[in-house]
Design goal:
Oligomer: single chain
CATH architecture of the largest domain: 3-Layer(aba) Sandwich
CATH superfamily of the largest domain: P-loop containing nucleotide triphosphate hydrolases
Number of domains: 2
Number of helices: 14
Strand content: 5-15%
Low-confidence stretches: none
Distance between the termini: 17 Å
CATH class of the largest domain: Alpha Beta
Structural class: alpha/beta
Helix content: 40-55%
CATH topology of the largest domain: Rossmann fold
Length: about 325
């Protein structure tokens, strides 16, 4: 598809989302850009870090920026799958069963502290995130479009957490760690800038149809054959690494390319460069590599960086 099909409107949507969220989450523009790249790639995003660094704030800010309806699920040990998907309820007036949709039936779904939910509850998300539908009592129900999941989790091993299964990790296009804010950003927060007061006044900058069109156009960003081969080379490097049993999946390869397309648009290009692949490889691959090797995400990021250093990038 020609590069010209990435329109000015899509570029405006991309930059407006980053700008809007960055007024609330201060000093984290690079991380915000990655989260928006995950959204524009058509994928889902997991925010992983210690409590109190702004994970939920970022998720709420993005939900408000999109203008669609948003739902929230709080991860707890007693959360049931039907608390997410919805449930059939018998109506004595009609003598029939009526489906009551759960919070998953929103354009943007915030799953706060997903790893405090049990694996049984987490399993309710697999079909929704992969296929855009949920099945309750044998009946499939389509989810709205656009549909985007942004989840947060505390570090694995924290009290009351359950590790995400490999299949669940693989459903997230990328995992972003916010980290602590810089000193100037934290000083601004102490002055009352950004944060919850700004969130209350945040206005939408894009509506649902605009977002759907932006995702479609990002998918059409130009990718040279050499860059596609570079993506495959990077993924193949995970499959031949001695510490990994089977490396990254074909779904991971597609996610790497799709998020790289979105990154290219966000930095103002109509085509994907090797630098776009390098910029998103850690967030896209590290959580998948960590799940396979049982390493922590920090070690996995270093492993991905080492792999990138050993894979020659094409000159584009």
């Amino acid at each position: 598809m020609p590069a010209a099909l990435v329109s000015r409107s899509t570029k405006r949507v991309a930059s407006a989302l980053v700008d809007n969220v960055s007024t609330v989450v201060l000093g984290k523009r690079d991380q915000v850009l990655l989260v928006v790249a995950g959204l524009l790639s058509g994928g889902h995003v997991l925010l992983e870090d210690v409590p109190g660094v702004g994970k939920t704030l970022l998720a709420k800010s993005l939900a408000r920026s999109l203008g669609g309806d948003a739902g929230r699920v709080q991860g707890t040990a007693d959360l049931m799958p039907t608390d997410i998907t919805g449930v059939n309820v018998f109506d004595p007036r009609t003598h029939d069963w009526e489906f009551h949709p759960g919070p998953i039936f929103h354009n943007v779904v915030l799953l706060d502290e997903i790893n405090r939910a049990t694996p049984r509850a987490q399993s309710a998300l697999l079909e929704a995130m992969a296929e855009g539908q949920v099945t309750v009592d044998g009946v499939a129900h389509r989810l709205p479009s656009p549909f985007f999941v942004i989840a947060t989790q505390n570090p694995q091993g924290d009290l009351g957490t359950f590790a995400l299964a490999e299949g669940q990790c693989d459903r997230f296009a990328l995992v972003v760690s916010l980290g602590l804010p810089g000193r100037e950003a934290e000083r601004a927060v102490l002055r009352g800038e950004g944060g919850l007061p700004t969130l209350e006044d945040l206005k939408p900058v894009v509506d649902g149809p605009e977002l759907v069109e932006a995702v479609r156009e990002v998918d059409g960003a130009h990718v040279a054959p050499a860059v596609s081969d570079y993506v495959l080379d990077v993924v193949d490097a995970t499959r031949s690494h001695p510490d990994l049993e089977h490396g990254a999946s074909p779904r991971a390869a597609r996610a790497l390319l799709q998020v790289a397309k979105a990154h290219a648009v966000l930095v103002g290009r109509d085509y994907v460069a090797p630098d776009d692949v390098k910029a998103v490889a850690g967030p896209v691959l590290a959580h998948r590599v960590a799940a396979v090797s049982r390493r922590g995400t920090g070690d996995a990021h270093r492993l991905v960086a080492d792999l990138l250093a050993g894979v020659p990038a094409p000159a584009v």
